[in-house]
Amino acid sequence: MGRKVCQQDHGQSRQNSNGHSNDHLFSTHVQAVIVQLSRPVLRPGFRPDARLWRGGIEGNFEVTISMYDASVGLFVPYLRNLSALLDKGVAYAEARKFNPAVLLGMRMAPDMYDLAQQIGEACRHATVAAALLADREPVALPVLEHDMAGLQARIATSIEFIESLPRAEINAAAERNVFFRLKNGTELPFTGRTLLLTFSVPQFFFHVTTAYDLLRHAGVELVKKDYLGRR
């Protein structure tokens, strides 16, 4: 008998005193809540930039970013953050009376680059990508050494070169054909946009992140703000 009642409850919509389906009212209420939650919550006095919004607050909106900001605007601050991470590594080693160069030989796995090579690759991908976008020859970086001072000089040289590139040339590179040459000589074809979004930026952040992880694993007292940059 109990099973039969259960089947009837599932098979029929329950009616309230006004003759309306409770299930229908519940569904309508849920839809109203979803609509309310999907609306942006704006602080008092907030005025969205009219250039970014189309069709009002509840309409579609678009945000544009230049090729320069998406390349130089990312590479330079994170190279500076990488330099600061190395400084913390040196301070950590000196406080514990061991040679900071020991940190540079650490690696996540036997077949992965060590810390010095991760930093070298971050600099390489940033400078080569920026040079390709600006239609310039990349800066000639010195031979990679497992030396803190040498790595800091490499980062500084990379930043100086990237900042010297013309904004207009980089902004005009979105649809231009470029070729990234691998160490084995293979050339990978891209447009400026696809080079940046699908190859160079992911490569750059892979190596910066791995460098952070190696230092953190070694015991250097780092937090996320050190990676993101203290602003």
TrEMBL record:
- Which stretches of sequence are listed as region Disordered? 1-22
Report biased composition (Polar residues) as residue ranges: 9-22
Q: Which residues cross the membrane?
A: none
InterPro entries per record:
DinB/YfiT-like (IPR034660), DUF1993 (IPR018531)
**Coiled coil, from the record:** none
User: Which domain of life does the UniProt lineage start with?
Assistant: Bacteria
Please state what the protein is called. DUF1993 domain-containing protein
